[in-house]
UniProtKB/TrEMBL annotation:
Gene: rpe
Annotated family: Belongs to the ribulose-phosphate 3-epimerase family.
UniProt entry keywords in alphabetical sequence: Carbohydrate metabolism, Cobalt, Isomerase, Manganese, Metal-binding, Zinc
Protein's pathway: Carbohydrate degradation
Cofactor(s) this protein cannot do without: a divalent metal cation; Mn(2+); Zn(2+); Co(2+)
Lineage top rank: taxon: Bacteria
Keyword Translocase belongs to the record: no
A biological process term (GO) from this entry: pentose-phosphate shunt
Primary role: Catalyzes the reversible epimerization of D-ribulose 5-phosphate to D-xylulose 5-phosphate.
Name the UniProt record assigns to this protein: Ribulose-phosphate 3-epimerase
Amino acid sequence: AAPILIAPSILASNFARLGDEVRDVAEAGADWIHLDVMDGHFVPNISFGPAIIQSLRPYTKAVFDCHLMIAPADPYLEAFAKAGCDYITVHAEAGPHLHRSLQTIRALGKKAGVSLNPATPLSAIEQVIGDIDLILIMSVNPGFGGQKFIHSQVEKIAQARALIGDRPIALEVDGGVTVETAPLCTRAGANVLVAGSAVFKGEGVEAYRSTVSALRQA
Ligand code: DX5
Ligand code: ZN
């Protein structure tokens, strides 16, 4: 089976020492660093933007997995590319021209992702399946860490795995992922797990290492 990648979300980390948190969680075995960007408009919360991501870039070589919960996204894609993001994921609900957003991300030399809110059907991305490198299934309503996993999304993960077929597309799940819910996601076909509060409830490299490996093994 393909390896399961763990992508801790630094949304749940200590913002007063973000650089150290990124370095520590990468040293603890995180495969990707998940960066939750929120604009107070597409979602009812505000987090951080490209300047902070750029200042975090020197702290690790780990893949920067940027989840844009912003609308519109297009005017900011270049800034996130220049900040050092490797994957840039936009929401299918964030604007009327998803295909254009995806093409822009790829033209910037980055991997293009699409995220779907819990209420959005998988059919929203059928027509752009050839233009994406990652599908991000939201298993909570985006905006906040620490929410409960929405079980109805497991079926959508399975549908996405079937849609992907043998295309080289990553299938990521975000929201409420714990050692209890992780196996539901991976059994349905997910290969990248985002975890915020589950990882950062502990503190320091050793605590992060034990949760990251527990998630990977779950
Ligand atoms: C939610 C974010 C998630 C969130 C996950 O809007 O996209 O990445 O930080 O946090 P947990 O793992 O605590 O649900
Ligand atoms: Zn996220």
